[in-house]
From TrEMBL:
<dbReference type="InterPro" id="IPR013196">
    <property type="entry name" value="HTH_11"/>
</dbReference>
<feature type="domain" description="WYL">
    <location>
        <begin position="137"/>
        <end position="201"/>
    </location>
</feature>
<feature type="domain" description="Helix-turn-helix type 11">
    <location>
        <begin position="6"/>
        <end position="59"/>
    </location>
</feature>
<dbReference type="InterPro" id="IPR051534">
    <property type="entry name" value="CBASS_pafABC_assoc_protein"/>
</dbReference>
<dbReference type="Pfam" id="PF13280">
    <property type="entry name" value="WYL"/>
</dbReference>
<protein>
    <recommendedName>
        <fullName>DNA-binding transcriptional regulator</fullName>
    </recommendedName>
</protein>
<dbReference type="InterPro" id="IPR036390">
    <property type="entry name" value="WH_DNA-bd_sf"/>
</dbReference>
<dbReference type="InterPro" id="IPR026881">
    <property type="entry name" value="WYL_dom"/>
</dbReference>
<dbReference type="Pfam" id="PF08279">
    <property type="entry name" value="HTH_11"/>
</dbReference>
<dbReference type="InterPro" id="IPR036388">
    <property type="entry name" value="WH-like_DNA-bd_sf"/>
</dbReference>
């Protein structure tokens, strides 16, 4: 670990504490010697970071705004890959924010890191995410955020049309297609709807509430339990 990374972690640990933490505890957390902790504390104090305390009693930090974060190459790659996925696969507003984030990251990268980041081995495809898809995603995201009911026309796997009014709970990307997870008012139960099969959509004026038995996290838990049961049954066959 580089010294700059260690100092950043040290500041983060101190900022997260309400009470003083000893040099021994810090040394154990960072897996370095107490002597190195003392040197790092002195370095932070001489740099103007308001670290309070002393050896034997412990240290804490007063209110302090951290300087810009220092990321490792893999952390930068993760951030840029995530931003590219958001830019390609979500709605126009989030895509614009993702592009702005990419621009800010690239603007402060040293030349050596820029070349390494440009060689990112992942390619984010945009082929199946056209403008119509993005507009539907935007409308759904706003409805989910505002807890607004939606009405839409839908084609099932057999191309049979249906009309639904639902409480939209979340958007899930399963690795191939985006899916709306919603509580269907007609069926009084969770339903999944592929976004590429939604023909038209209208946001209604009436709103809905979530509860422990109607929310995205509860739906995901049900899915996990379902597939765990299937896995257990296969193991016992």
């Amino acid at each position: 670990m580089h010294k700059s990374e260690r100092l950043f972690q040290l500041v983060n640990i101190l900022k997260s504490r309400r009470f003083a933490i000893t040099a021994n505890e810090l040394a154990n957390k960072l897996k370095i010697s107490q002597r190195t902790i003392y040197r790092n504390i002195q370095h932070l104090q001489s740099s103007g970071v308001p670290v309070e305390g002393e050896a034997g009693t412990g240290y804490l930090i007063a209110d302090y705004d951290l300087p810009p974060m220092m990321f490792t190459l893999e952390e930068l790659q993760a951030l840029l890959l995530g931003s590219k996925m958001v830019s390609a696969w979500t709605d126009p507003q989030l895509a614009a924010s993702a592009q702005a984030a990419i621009t800010k990251i690239n603007a402060v990268l040293p030349e050596k890191l820029k070349q390494q980041v440009e060689e990112l081995p992942y390619l984010v495809s945009t082929f199946s995410h056209d403008k119509a898809h993005q507009e539907i995603t935007l409308q759904l995201r706003k409805a989910i955020t505002n807890k607004t009911c939606i009405e839409f026309h839908y084609l099932d796997v057999n191309q049979q049309p249906s009309h639904r009014i639902t409480d939209p709970l979340g958007l899930v990307y399963w690795g191939a297609k985006w899916t709306l997870i919603a509580y269907c008012q007609l069926r009084s139960d969770y339903r999944e709807f592929r976004l590429d099969r939604i023909q038209s959509i209208v946001s209604l004026t009436n709103t809905f509430d979530t509860n422990p038995q109607k929310n995205l996290a509860h739906y995901i838990e049900l899915v996990k339990a379902k597939y765990q049961t299937k896995s257990d049954d296969q193991c016992h066959q």
